[in-house]
Amino acid sequence: MKEIVCASGVELLMDYLEGVLPADVRSAVDAHVAGCPRCVAFLASYRETPRLLREATATRIPADLQASLRAFLRAQRGLSE
Amino acid sequence: MVVPTAESSDETLAARAAAGDDHAFELLVERYQGRIFRLACRLTSDTDAPDVLQETFLQAYRHLSSFRGESQFGTWLYRIATNAALMHRRTRARRPAEPLDAFLPRFDTDGRHVGTPAELQLASQADELLDRQFLAEKARAVIARLPDLYRDAFVLRDLEEMSTADVAHALGVEPATVRQRVHRARLMLRGYLSDLVGVKP
Fold it and tell me: Least C-beta-crowded within 10 Å: which of A55, B2, B79, B182?
């Protein structure tokens, strides 16, 4: 198969991390990354991106919204407080 | 009769709620409201999330009898919430496209990364290098700038940590399509974070 360079390796990263690449392609990616400090660094930041954004968007539900949701649902069910 | 408690399983509570036990339903709401609110914020906006939250639990309540325990209750509820969020977004005016293509990785003519390893890795330290509140605001804003198809796949797969198969089912596309969209979103967002900490992608 064709040799992997940084650009073609990057396009395979999602499939690589999800374990859906054919074995020979996976080996080719491994071989490239093993000898490429730039790809090691890129892969690290690619993997961290979901975690960073997950933590940065982990909003909490405000207490007043919990109360208004409960009131809304009770009203919809035809119940009173 | 056994009184449902906060320790009862989702499926037990759902079955009781379907049989008319409102206390069981309220326990489910308490258990999931935080997660559904967070999902709604990620798929719509802080402003629209309360409406999506109400709509989700109202739909869940109305359709409890159709929940048969074939999937987990959480999966079923997430699907309702996702649909509610996407429907809600459709009622809003289309936002102008703000392409994030400028943040995609760059390569030289031989297909090699442009930048040093230290520069290429810097995005992963965004939470150490940036103020927490600043990063939170930027994160919300940039996720909203993603093309909708990428945003939905990224939010469900990477922020809500659903499996690729579940995301595919929820969005009605093939798993390979989910992977492709999540990948594009990750590349754009990684480049954006990189830019935010001061390194051109």
Answer: B2
Q: What is the pLDDT of residue B135?
A: 96
Q: Are B179 and A72 inside 8 Å of each other by CB?
A: no
Domain architecture of chain A: domains with CATH = 6-76 (1.10.10)
Q: Alpha-carbon distance B59 to B70, whole Å?
A: 18
A vs B, Cβ pairs < 8 A, gives 141
Average pLDDT over chain A, rounded to an integer: 93
8 Å CB contact between B44 and B85: yes
Nearest to residue B38, comparing CAs of A65, A76, A47, A45?
A65
| 3-state DSSP assignment of residue B113 | strand
- In chain B the domains, ranked by start, together with CATH numbers, are 10-90 (1.10.1740.10), 101-196 (1.10.10.10)
Q: What is the pTM of this model?
A: 0.92
Which stretch of DSSP H or E encloses residue A75? helix A63-76
Subunit contact B135:A76, Cβ cutoff 8 A = no
Question: Which residue on chain A is closest to B59 by alpha carbon?
Answer: A73
ipTM, interface predicted TM-score of the complex: 0.91
With an 8 Å Cβ cutoff, are B53 and A65 in contact? yes
Residues sharing a CB contact under 8 Å with residue A16, sequence separation 6 or more, in sequence order: A26, A29
pLDDT of residue B66: 87
Q: Which residues contact B28 (CB under 8 A, 6 or more apart)?
A: B10, B13, B14, B17, B60, B73
The number of C-alpha atoms within 13 Å of B125 and in the hemisphere containing its C-beta is 11
The shortest C-alpha distance from B18 to chain A (Å) reads: 13
User: What is the model's pLDDT at position A80?
Assistant: 39
